[in-house]
């Protein structure tokens, strides 16, 4: 292992966003040989006093587990030089851009150790989320980070007991890659080295981790479920299971596939071919979710041929996508990374996305209220704001079909 | 005036569905010279005892107004021969088909007076709602009604005080026409006569009524708002005003227009040309609603050119389409007449309707719960029904984009 920023054996990790996912990756990295400083917000006091109870089928039971340090502010960690800043907080740039959440910690870190900038690891949902941090922190005239590592995690973990306990099953895998995706280009040696160290930490900690030169493709894979099954759940405000009834599938399945096809259209127009994101993913993602139906699926018009049901993988009847859970709890949703970044790309490339547009149109008024509330603004007054300006120029429209107005 | 079914001066009207719209048309027809028998459900006792309080900008204040008779069952009206059966109840055929709601009254009526069948007038939302009643009541081997009159009403009326009071503004207009639309074909004399009498009753009662040979076109006009602005409101669960903010219009307007364009596609594929349903309706319906925005609408990129705001027509900030009000109150929605009949037609004609499909996919699971509740069924148990069968044959799919399943 190469010398760390502090010159000691154990690399220093600053972990931002100590929710369910944050706790699991704190545990993995610390067990793998890192010192982990977790920045907590609402659960700071209890985690500091009592630690956190981990109940994981994969990682075991650990009552009162503690990261190396718990902190609330940049000042509390002023003496440490960090090797990695791992971001597990929600990506809601309409509340606060990723770079702004990290900036105070990164500035403090640079003051402490200007010669060695840390690697930023984004374990977050969505597509096209990296560029903002890359511009603001890596490509800035006064850079604060050495590079952006984009990471896609498959994990289902639940934070319970007001942030004192997490429950986790068996599924946990993380794919990491440098942003922008190097593809066939060589990665500068120090960055490759630093990424290798991160992968080794996670492996030693028992995590399933994979490094790739094409993290962008992995993000498209991951988001395919979130926008399609997740999008219809969000519009319906219902658990996935309710979309999988014999009486609802004739309505939901076609739409779910249609949303995925819109995404494939965007992917192809972006120059990403079948070898990087295959259209067969549609069947995989549809089939995987459909297998959780309780209904019998008759394949042909013959009355006695049924598709085998994967009875063991029945989803929990109340499972809802996290974006719907956020909506129901009155928290700002990850609308930007999951839906709006995709639509932005579609508009730029001239791809029509009627279903995604409708989800955005329906979710945006809600998001606006949630964001205003978070910012302490008066939503009701802002709805009636007579000075706000809407540009009825087609170019100003976010969705595909613009209004005609005599000019 | 021709002799009525009872041979007396005043035609007999049976009015089913004594909600806001039903009260207004009871008032108009009774004032215009008919005897009105209103069939009440939840508000029977109070209406019978105290009448209903009408507060209408157009028709004035009438406290304790009463229809000629109030009834609950067919038996109570066994001695009357009806000239008109006016249907103002919600059209939710997935709970009960229109014809089934009318049948017991029509059978009793025919027993009483087999020689003269009444005219059925459907004052209901949606498209393609008439055929079911036409088949079951008019074209049946033992017909119970002389014909179906389809009617489109523009009216905003609110039922308050648990069905004891209605509030109504100035807007009230009714367009009526024989189903199927005769267009240039002659209408049989007795039907024409009976329809004329109905129009005269409404006119004498102070209503704005118009007869047309093409009621089908009028239904498409009316539904255009409901499916577009109404559809996005339904998905968003927000009042119209929240779709009209400077920050939400870039998302909502394009989708609203897109939904309308899907409808125009269906209309044209149905053989209904520009002269019957004009595409310019899109601009009218978008513009009419947009004029209720509080935001300034900048037409060009020039910083100082704004569209004039119709400050007087500001909609009430909390106005919601009735389908959303039904959802919020846990009542089955008019999903079939407003959305699903349109999509059925689209599938039959091969028209792609991605936005309407998504609305249907999201609303169907909700509707299923509301209908099951209404029927006294156990929704939670039915979700987990392992015997229900889903036909994964593309022809069985309601929406455009069917699943691929190895067969």
UniProtKB/TrEMBL annotation, chains A, B:
GO cellular component: cytoplasm
Ketopantoate reductase N-terminal domain: residues covered: 13-179
Domain Ketopantoate reductase C-terminal residue range list: 214-366
Highest rank taxon of the organism: Eukaryota
PANTHER family in UniProt: KETOPANTOATE REDUCTASE C-TERMINAL DOMAIN-CONTAINING PROTEIN, PROBABLE 2-DEHYDROPANTOATE 2-REDUCTASE
UniProt name for this protein: 6-phosphogluconate dehydrogenase c-terminal domain-like protein
């Amino acid at each position: 292992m190469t010398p760390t920023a502090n010159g000691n054996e154990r690399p220093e990790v600053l972990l931002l966003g100590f929710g369910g996912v944050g706790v699991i990756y704190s545990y993995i990295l610390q067990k793998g040989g890192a010192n982990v400083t977790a920045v907590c917000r609402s659960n700071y006091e209890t985690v500091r006093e009592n630690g956190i109870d981990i109940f994981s089928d994969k990682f075991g039971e650990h009552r009162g587990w503690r990261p190396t340090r718990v902190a609330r502010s940049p000042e509390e960690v002023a003496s440490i030089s960090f090797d990695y800043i791992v971001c597990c907080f929600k990506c809601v740039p309409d509340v606060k851009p990723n770079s702004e959440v990290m900036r105070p910690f990164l500035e403090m870190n640079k003051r402490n150790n200007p010669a060695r900038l840390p690697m930023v690891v984004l374990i977050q949902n969505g597509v096209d989320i990296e560029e903002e941090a890359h511009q603001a922190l890596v490509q800035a005239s006064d850079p604060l980070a050495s590079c952006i590592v984009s990471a896609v995690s498959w994990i289902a973990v639940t934070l319970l007991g007001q942030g004192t306990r997490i429950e986790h099953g068996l599924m946990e895998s993380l794919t990491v890659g440098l942003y922008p995706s190097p593809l066939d280009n060589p990665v500068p040696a120090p960055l490759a080295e630093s990424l290798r160290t991160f992968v080794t930490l996670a492996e030693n900690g028992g995590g399933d981790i994979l490094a790739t030169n094409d993290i962008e493709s992995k993000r498209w894979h991951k988001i395919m479920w979130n926008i399609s099954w997740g999008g219809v759940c969000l519009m319906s405000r219902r658990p996935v299971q309710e979309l999988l009834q014999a009486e609802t599938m004739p309505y939901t399945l076609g739409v779910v596939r249609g949303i995925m096809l819109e995404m494939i259209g965007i992917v192809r127009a972006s120059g990403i071919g079948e070898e990087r994101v295959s259209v067969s993913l549609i069947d995989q993602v549809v089939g995987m979710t459909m297998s959780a139906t309780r209904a019998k699926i008759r394949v042909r018009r013959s009355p006695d041929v049924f598709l085998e049901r994967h009875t063991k993988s029945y989803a929990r009847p109340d499972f809802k996508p996290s974006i719907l859970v956020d909506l129901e709890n009155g928290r700002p949703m990850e609308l930007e990374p999951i839906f709006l970044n995709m639509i932005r790309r579609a508009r730029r490339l001239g791809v029509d996305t009627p279903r995604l547009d409708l989800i955005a149109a329906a979710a945006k008024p809600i998001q606006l209220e949630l964001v205003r509330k978070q910012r302490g603004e008066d939503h009701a007054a802002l709805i009636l704001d007579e000075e706000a300006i809407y540009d009825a120029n087609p170019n100003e429209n976010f969705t595909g079909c613009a209004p005609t107005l005599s000019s």
